[in-house]
Every structure is written in C-alpha cells, then in structure tokens.
Amino acid sequence: MTRLMTLQEMFKRYRRPGDVVFALVFLAFSLFLLLNLKSQLVWKDGLILGKQPALWPTIAVIGMTCLAFLHWLSSALSPRIYGRLAEMTFWAKSCEYVIWFMAYIYGVKYYGYLPMTIVLAVVLGIRVGFRSWRSVMMLILFAVVVVVVFKSMLQVNIPGGALYDYLPGAVRSFALTYL
Amino acid sequence: MEDFLSAFTLLADWKVFFALLVGSIGGAIIGAIPGVGPAIAIAILLPATFSFEPIVGLTMLLGIYGSSMYGGSIPAILINTPGTAVNALTTYDGYPMTKRGEGRRALSLAYSASFFGAILSIICLILMAPVLAKVAPYFGSREIFFAAFLGILLVVLAHRGQIFAAGMLAMFGILLNSVGFESVTYSERFTFGQSWLRGGVNLIVVVLGLFALSQAFLLLTEKNKSPDSELISGSLFDGMKESWLYKRVATVGAGFGVLMGVIPGVGEFTAQFFSYSHARANSKKPDEFGKGSPEGLIASESANNAVPAAAMIPLLALGIPGEALTAMMLSVFYVHNVIPGPQLFQNKMDFVLALYLALIIINVIVFVFLLFSTNLLIKAIQIPTRLLGVMILILSLVGVYSLRNSFVDCGMAAGFGVFGLILKRLNLPIVPIILGMVLGNIMDVKLRSAMARVKTPYDFVDGRPIAMILVGIIVLVILLHLRTLWNEYKIEKSKHAAK
Q1: Is residue B295 within 8 Å of residue B289, measured between CB atoms?
Q2: What is the DSSP string of B216-280?
Q3: Do the chains contact at B492 and A121, CB–CB below 8 Å?
Q4: Contacts of A30 in chain B (CB under 8 A)
Q5: Chain centre to alpha carbon of residue B487
Q6: HSE on the CB side for B183, CA within 13 Å?
Q7: pLDDT score, position A56
Q8: What is the pLDDT of residues B375-398, one digit of tens each?
Q9: Which tens digit of pLDDT belongs to each residue from A41-94?
Q10: Number of helical H runs and strand E runs in chain B
Q11: Is a pLDDT exceeding 70 seen at residue A2?
Q12: Cβ-nearest to B401 among A30, A64, A108
C-alpha cells in the first residue's frame, strides 16, 4: 500500500483546471486511432521493417496511446482543481473567433483582400471593444498598411477578389495585382 | 579567406541589408510586446519569405530570432512581464531593480549582457566552422537518424514534470507528419478515405495554427489588458561600462548558451537556469539574487542571447532543428533547395559564413537601435491585448492563405489554433509537436536510406564511431533519467515512511 501511495505521489503534478478533460479526450482520440491502425495502414509484403510505410505511424499511435494513458493517470491521481466548466466554456468561447477567421478568408475570395481586411479590422475591433473614432481610424490604417506591405510590395500569393472583375479595365488590373 | 570574401559578396546586396534591418528592428519590437513573440512573427512571415532569395529570407527570419530576446527584456524589467517566454528569468532581478528606481540601469545592463553573449557565441561559431566542416562528412544517414532520435528524446525529457504530455505531443507530431499519401510505396496513411487528408498535414499550417492563431484566439477571448509603464530618461550607455565589471559572469553565461544551444531540444531555458545557478553559487552576494542583482540579470541575458547562434550549428551541420524557430527556418532552406547538412559545409561554406556574419550585423543593429529607441518600444508594450489579437488574426491570413490559397489549409490552421489555445491555457508544451513533425520526417527518411546498408541491428554502429557515440549518449540520457526517477521515488518513499 505504501508503495502504491508513493507512486501516486510521484505521478502528481502541477495542473490547471480542465487538464483531466483534455487528458481524457486525447486518450480517447489515441484509442480511436489505435483501433483503426489495421484499416488505415498497409504493411507491404517483402519490405523490411525500416522501409515499411506503416512503421512510423504505428510507433506514433502506440506511443501516443501509452503516454496519453499515463498523462490521464497523473491527472486523475492529482488533487481535483475546481473551475473545469469555466475553463471549458473559455475554450468554447474561442470558437467564435474561428468563425470570424473563416468568414474573413471566405470574404477575401469574393470581395477582395483590401476591402475584407478593412471590414474585418473595423467590425472585429468594434466587437472586442475598440469603438472610439481614434481606434477605428487606427484599425483602418493598420489594415491598409498590411495589404500594401504584403500584397502590393511583397506580392504574396493572395488572389484578387471576384468582385474586382466588375471594376473598369485599368482599375481592375491594378486591383487584381496590388489590392 | 576565399569563403569569407564570397560571404561578404553575398551580404553586399541592398535586399539583404534591408532584410537584416527589418528583421532585427522588427524582432526587437515584436519581442517587446508581451503576447506576440518571435514564433508568431516567423510563422506569419514564413510563406512570404519563400519568394525571396534564400539569403534574404533567412537573414530576415534570423533577425527576428536573434533580436526578439533583446526586446523581450524591456517588459520583463519594467513591468515584470517577459516579452518572450525566455525572458522569464530576467524578471527575477530586472523588476526589483526597476522598483528601486534603477530601471534604466537594468535595461542598460541587459542590453550589454545580451550583446556580449550573442557576439561571443557567434565568434565561437565562426571558430568552430572549420572543425564542423571536417566532422560533418562523417555524419551519414545512420548518424543523422540517431541525432534526430536524440533530439526528440531531449525535447521530451527537457519538459520536467510534463514528460508524459511532452512525449504524447511529440508522438502526435510524428503522426501528423505521416498522415496522407505516401509516395514511396503508394499507400495511404490515416486518411480515412478523405481526399483533403491525402495531401498530408503541412508543417506551416500547423505552425501558424499552434503559434499565431492560437495566440490571436487567446488574446481575443481573454479580458483586455493594457500594460502601463513609465518612459525612461537618461543615457543607456552607462551600463555598458558597468557590465564590463561582470565580464566573467557574462562569459560563463554565454558559454552555457553556446553549449545548450548546440544540443537539440534544450535551448534557452536550460542555458539560463545553469548560468543563473552558477552565477549565484559563485557570487560574493548570493543573497541579492532574485532581489535585483546585476549579476543575476547579466547571467540570464547573456545565456539566452548566446543560444540563437549556437542553435544554428545542428541546423546547418546536420539539418536538425533544436527548437520550433529553427524548425520553421528549416522549411525556408528546403523551399529553396538549399539542404542543410554535411554537404552544405563542404559545398556552400560561403553561405554558412554569410549567415554567421549576418548574425553579427543583426546584433549591432539591434543594440544601437535599443540604445536610442527604448522609449518607442515602451509605447509598443502599452498596446491593448485585444487589439493585438485583431492584428495577429489579420496577419495570420497572410501566412496561411498565401501558402496554397486553400480553404482546407485555413480550416486546419484554425483547428490547430483552438488546439494550441487549449495547450497554452493548460500550460502544456507546443514545441514537441513541431519537433515531432520535423524530426519524425528526418528519422523516417534517414532510416529508409540507412536500411539499404543495414542487415542486422549491429550494422547500425559497426565501423561508425559517431553512430556509436550517439547511441552511447542516448543510452546514458535514458539511464540518467531513470536514475533521477528512482531517486525521486526513494525520496517520496522516505517521506511516507516518516509520516
């Protein structure tokens, strides 16, 4: 019993609220991959072990599962920390900004990089509390500078928006190249 | 000498100089803003640098890497918040000095120690280059495989108290690298019949998600904070003279930085820890450590700034990155078909020397910039955190969408963003995932190529002294760790017996 208690002491570690939830989800994910090892990997006949395409994913999944189990065990053996639900709510809240980000990318495809960057900077800025004229102007300036530096000067690979096709000739080609 | 002249010619280009200027000044500014950090900046800029010449792209990223820790010391000293994670130890003595009204002195000492550590490290690097050029050809597939394996092992073991988490995340990184269509044997791995998974998981998408988007989501979701700090007045040159009094501490600190920087997976934290502990053990005033000791400040700053140059050694000589930032730089090499490794030292020594010289220029630029522009950076510290979140979100598009204009990539990056946010909130390490991906790929490729000449496990080390040494180190590291665990177990057992 003493030996068991000592091991328990050794497994205890510094944690934050929500750690056990993450540990459990990661363990479940690892087990899911482990159960799918056979269907998702191919062991080729006649190939030596070091050249098998399934070697590294197998090592990774088995390693993940064993270590995820030990991680969960150390979480479960450590004293409970309150605030798990609040932490999970925080994780869920962050998904709002995933939607903002995906909408921004979707918008760039149709409405163009410059217009969408300005719109996102202003609307998201207002959403998170920057509502004064000074803040809005600063965000517009930031959006324009980002587009000028990356698209106009560095010519990064961001295609022109579908909306640009409706612009008159010379403006259209300028917008497609630089904005 | 010929290589040196050729290296100077490579650097004598306005585009290189501009990249150095933007990288080093930009890096100092980014480092000074808590919540941003060099990893985010490099992740965002990475795809943009693919269109540059290799030397231009790499010097810009090196500038950010080498100068961010200088900037990171400013909030660490003035507001007790490290600008970059590696400036955490700087707060121990820097902030108490500020509270005593010695903020200017602390900043000046930090800049001088950082400059001293970085330059000493680069000199070591330049002196070691001919030796590396001679040793590097002895590293074949087997040696690089073992070195990569050692890298993974050290990354995991370096996370004391979180070894299981670091291990499972490193394994997750290895798995991510293997997902998709495998082009050698034409088989699919963990695609679940989904066409969007056939192309695999791109390293840059993961890096952007885990570093940049996760930070944007975190800053936007958390309550807004506006750090406040007073501007400083007076000259910052005085500390340069004072730091000379502690040249021994700075030299030892830089030595630890070089040593730890070379070892993959160890890096700035361990270097600082050893340097700080050594300085305290040998100080005439050990009681002052943690209460505003100039020696403590110099020990930590000289050590962490010596690491970037040293971290280039395994990257350039073996193609093995020791941490996330050098892992990102590795992709710039590959995009331009400049493959780091033994061949680079044999065939492109001028390129290697140009990178070393660029590091010296970066340190000079940032040092001079900080001596005159610290107050400008103090204003940058005051940017509200949610505003930073908006800015990082906008900039992340440049990184992820410009890569392949793929909506799937963006979705994956956003997914990794949420995953990274959870890891950050739980204080779990992100770096093992990135190194798992990069080193997992190296291990996969090198093992395959080694297998052509290996029939029994003994053939791995037969007639290969370096492979033998590496295997010896791996065994030693594992044994030492097991011994530590055993000792901890015995301590816990004796505690229980006493109860």
Answers
A1: yes
A2: HHHHHHSPP-----PPP-S-S-HHHHHHHHTHHHHHHHHHHHHHHHHSTTTHHHHHHHHHHHHHH
A3: no
A4: 168
A5: 31
A6: 3
A7: 94
A8: 888 888 888 999 999 999 999 988
A9: 999 888 888 889 999 999 999 999 999 999 999 888 888 888 899 999 999 999
A10: 22, 2
A11: no
A12: A108
Q: How far is CA A169 from CA A114, A155, A166, A174, A177, in A?
A: 18, 21, 9, 9, 13
Nearest to A57 among B167, B184, B190 (CB): B190
In whole angstroms, give the CA distance from residue B92 to residue B293.
9
* Amino acid letter, A109: K
CA distance B214 to B207: 10
Q: Residue B235 above 90 pLDDT?
A: no
Q: Which residues contact B43 (CB under 8 A, 6 or more apart)?
A: B204, B207, B208, B211, B212, B328, B399
pLDDT tens digits along B203-233: 889 989 999 999 999 999 999 888 777 777 7
Element holding B96 (H helix, E strand): helix B90-99
Which residues are CB-contacts of A25 (< 8 A; sequence separation ≥ 6)? none
Nearest to A75 by CA among A24, A131, A37: A24
Q: Which of residues 30-59 of A touch B (CB under 8 A)?
A: 30, 33, 36, 40-42, 44, 47-48, 50-51, 53-54, 56-57, 59
For an interface test with A, the pick among B208, B222, B401, B454 (most A C-beta atoms closer than 10 Å) comes out as B401
Answer yes or no: is pLDDT of A110 > 80. Answer: yes
pTM: 0.89
What is the residue type of B8? Answer: F
Contacts of B454 in chain A (CB under 8 A): 50
Q: What percent of chain A lies above the pLDDT cut of 90?
A: 60
Distance (Å, whole) CA B372 – CA B108: 11
